[in-house]
Amino acid sequence: MAIEVRIPTILRTFTGGAKSVEGSGDTLDELISDLDSRHSGLRDRLVDDSGLRRFVNVYLNDEDVRFLGGLSATVKDGDTVTVLPAVAGGAR
Amino acid sequence: MMRYDSLLDAVGGTPLVGLPHLSPGSEQRLWAKLEDRNPTGSVKDRAALWMVRAAERDGLLSPGRTVLEPTSGNTGISLAMICRLRGYQLICVMPENTSAERTQLLQMYGARIVYSPAAGGSNEAVRVAKRLAAENPRWVMLYQYGNEANARAHYESTGPEILADLPEITHFVAGLGTTGTLMGTGRFLREHVPGVQVVAAEPRYGELVYGLRNMDEGFVPELYDDTVLTSRYSVSAADALRRTRELVACEGIFAGISAGCVVHVGLALAAKAKAAGRRADIAVLIADGGWKYLSTGAYSGTLAEAEARLEGELWA
Predict the structure, then answer these.
(1) Given the residues B44, B130, B272, B292, the one annotated as active site
(2) Is B312 domain-assigned?
(3) Parallel, antiparallel, or unpaired: how do β-strands A51-52 and A47-48 relate?
(4) For domain A3-85, which architecture applies?
(5) CB 3.0 to 4.6 Å from B262: which of B1, B47, B183, B201, for a disulfide?
(6) What is the pLDDT of residues B59-75, one digit of tens each?
(7) pLDDT digits (tens, 9 = 90+) for A5-46
(8) Whole-prediction pTM value?
(9) CA–CA distances in Å: residue B208 to residues A10, A65, B136, B223, B313
(10) Residue B197 shares a structural domain with residue B261
(11) ipTM for the whole complex
(12) Chain A interface, mutation test: which of B44, B105, B127, B215, most A Cβ atoms within 10 Å?
């Protein structure tokens, strides 16, 4: 079972420089733990006691997971998960 | 009635235009709210006018006073026009690598510009503006990212206009920036249309933009309340560009690149509805026209070339 997880530059120290890694799990929570088993410390950058960290955005097939159940969002083979920092954005 | 006593009275009241060619079927329709049909050409005229009016009501502004705002975009242009007409001096704080056209436009309205270091981007402009506001207590910083009048402009104008024109609305899609449009319009529609979906379209930038940005030093606008949204989608430059060009080619609408984001999400929602055999009437908010973005090359050359030019840019 393979789920592609895209990692932002700042977190590639945990993945040996890889911009994308693969993992498995039935939920985002399980997937993150699975990645952490091979890339120790990654989970702590993404998750705290209350769930996903405030300035971390995670998208499941381009949809913000906070609207799909957050850490309990269902993931499956073939899905793409993208992790990004929350930014101020462009000209307003 | 199309007659107004002066330009400020002509804010809002924008057309809602169907997209018969892009809409997937007769049962799933997209409707574009054309916010470039505002006095200075963008949706920000609403937020700017409401924020200025609120400050006047609160006794913070009177002729001769100074307004300060971190903005390199549409908000600055809107505020420049309004401040000119109301007799206030506007100071815009913006990154030094902002285009010449924007500088010219702001100065034409009489605004003064304070440049913040390009490297710090919009975050640094906000920091510099906050410091200036603290040093000059008589200056008024409206602060679009946290000013409730920004969201209220949409609760009181954008939302009601959309409902009046599209009582059968099923979805509302807009770009996510200060979040004012989605918060205000979203709250209004949720109060009046049971089951309506309020959906955010967010630009996804290139790697360089996110760079080595610390995951703990992010920014979430103070106005943002995610309970107002039903969902939020991330849209690539490639998809945004493709849809922006389709808007011109298929519907004759010349819009800014953020419009491509909202149309992309609107079309995805329409496709979902079609697959489920459900009717959909999806209002998508087109924030501005394409004029300010012509020099980005978004509308010329191949899509791949245009996409490459936007790499590393905050394109929406």
Answers:
(1) B44
(2) no
(3) antiparallel
(4) Roll (3.10)
(5) B201
(6) 999 999 999 999 978 99
(7) 999 999 999 999 999 999 999 999 999 999 999 999 999 999
(8) 0.95
(9) 11, 23, 35, 27, 8
(10) yes
(11) 0.94
(12) B215
